[in-house]
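Worked example 2:
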Amino acid sequence: MIKTENLNKNFGNFPALKELSLEIPAGEIYGFLGPNGAGKTTTIRMLIGLLKPSSGRIYLCGYDLAKNPISAKSLVGFIPDRPYLYEKLTAREFLHFIGGVYGMSEGEVEKQAPAQLEFFNLKDWADELVESFSHGMKQRLVFASALLHDPRVIIVDEPMVGMDPKGARLLKDAFRRLAHQEGKTIFMSTHTLEIAQEVCDRIGIINQGELVAEGTMEQLRNLSKTKEANLEEIFLKLTAGEEIRELLESLQG
């Protein structure tokens, strides 16, 4: 699970994140939404240990990230929005490299890698250089590498960028299986509101560094007082985006 307690991050005098408290249990897909500059990337970088909070605590599967960073990080799989791949390696070699980073033995990697390559439709490309892969194939390889060590927490930043419809469907199905059947916690940041509405069990909306809303779609509709609204309408209303859109429309008219 993921838990944050009163998480704050300041860059000089600028408060990028303010008192963020989250509790995301095992088996849940949690969508994390917000406008550009709202604090999503800052939050993700703190969750994976690339940034230290100015104050507050982060717990991953019960481990305090500040006190037990190795134990906490070993249970996390991270898929960034702009992954870096060693393109002169084959897909199989890349998985062995990632397995080594996580302290897996050669035997463990050889046992796990084929299943990941097959699930993400890369089995026939296992011994091809990554540089020959399409963007979607590279994305799927990153997912395969992130799941190789069987993490309990999966943190994903913009998972569907550049994915074709078939690849996107594969990832959606993978999220549901990992969370609802295998009990993993998935934290997903995305700008694609339709995907968040379709896939996520709960959604948190952050604006100007603060969590302004959190809940299921039904709870968010109640909070925004929009009974039949979709996530886009709720998002715009809760982040003041609706007011800006109406203003632009009135100026154009």
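The longest helix spans residues 165-181. Residues 85-150 form one domain.
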